[in-house]
Amino acid sequence: MEIMKFLGILLISVLPLTLTQLPTQLPALSSLPNFQVANLTFRVIDRNNNGIMELTECNTSFNTFKRYPTDNSIARDWFVARMVSFSHTQTVGDYVFTHYDRDSDNDLDVSDFNAMYTLFDKNGNGVVVREEFIRYYDQLLTNATLSG
Ligand SMILES: [Ca+2]
Ligand SMILES: [Ca+2]
Ligand SMILES: [Ca+2]
After folding, report:
1. pLDDT digits 0-9 by tens, 40-93
2. Given 55, 92, 109, 125, which is the most exposed site by the fewest CB atoms within 10 A?
3. Which residues does the UniProt record annotate as the domain EF-hand (predicted)?
4. CA of 93 to the centre of ligand 3 (A)
């Protein structure tokens, strides 16, 4: 009896936390259309939520993919594993890595991300706005999916 009461109290104290966490939880990316995945990805990268992906935000995103904070680069295996942990398929992770690795040295570093930034910036005005990123990433994911 005591244990049931304890569990009841535990449930009541944990429940509000679970409920407030639910809306921010991302659905499995593999179940969503690429356009929506691109949209969600932009929302994660655009930390100050101003509709622009600043180069600093691009670099912050690069840092979150590092295995250790002191690393200067990201190896293919680690990058693909991270993509899979976000419920992308292995094929998509591999394709995106190959695309991001602009100098094809099988390592992602900040120069690759800077080069990616100029690719995202379709109109070449020095900033990447939401629409530019979403269009680019949507197409990249579509190509990646087709590659498998
Ligand atoms: Ca921003
Ligand atoms: Ca590289
Ligand atoms: Ca632009």
Report:
1. 999 999 999 999 999 999 999 999 999 999 999 999 999 999 999 988 999 999
2. 125
3. 108-143
4. 25
Contact 129, 54 (CB under 8 A): no
Closest ligand by atom to 117 CA: 3
Q: Indicate which ligand has the atom closest to the C-alpha of 121.
A: 3
Report how far ligand 2's centroid is from the alpha carbon of 108 (Å): 4
Amino acid, res. 138: D
Residue 108 has phi, psi (to 5 degrees) of -100, 125
Kindly identify the ligand whose nearest atom is closest to the C-alpha of 103.
Answer: 2
